[in-house]
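Good day; I would like, with your permission, to put a structural problem before you. I would ask you to consider whether the tokens describe a fold that such a sequence might reasonably adopt. The full record is reproduced below for your convenience:
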Amino acid sequence: MRRRTRSSYSSYGTRGPRKIWKILLGILIVIVLIAGWGAWKVFTPYQPDETAVAALAEAADAVKVNEQEHWIGFEPAKRSGAGVILYPGALVKPESYAPLARRLAEKGHHVIIAKMPLNLPLASPDLAGEVLKAYPKEAFVIGGHSLGGVMAARYAAAHADQIKGVFFLASYPDNKGNLKDKNLPVISLLGSDDGVINMEQVQNGRAYLPANTLYFTVEGGNHAQFGSYGAQKGDNAATISAVEQWNQTVSALQDWMKESVDGAPKNQ
């Protein structure tokens, strides 16, 4: 009778399972790497471009940039009109809105850009409360870009007695941010060439806005140029420069605040 040697036992008894486990381990490693790469792509925020970085670093007597743990402040030397709390869009670094914020501050508005955890407005929708506590003697309007506007509206709906108005940049409210009966002035700005925003949701969102909401179209503007972080996936190319889009936005917001916010009694 043939005797089974140690080597033959090892070959038939363990080599097969070991090979299978190596294959399974290799597959698992590949899956983890793919998942990690996918998560990195999904959660990597849009970064401020050179123009935004320059707007943060620019030294000017008229505007002082004051960076805190939870926000970036643009403080005008001579304040005029309401302050502005801006919630960034999802996965957009707050510094990306520096050019817009600086232009508003140059008009006399104290502008606060919120720093959201993980660059997601959903992570800290009540961050505006910290700003209001830090500046109790100032009056603020609140708004945001894209998902930031949705979260800003939710805060305003829950704290209407603390806010003077609400603005939307390529955004809209949902049912949790219902402003219809809050007696707050509202303005909604949208680029005519926006390729990111869901227009059906924009239309549905109008049901949650007051009848006297001001709607402003930035002709030739797109979604990303409310900020300064380069092209955004799915967006259309703008037919105006980013500078022109910021200038139109600032002009519209300033006119709205002068007419509907600063000139009206609080919580009219």
User: Anything to note?
Assistant: The mean pLDDT is 89.
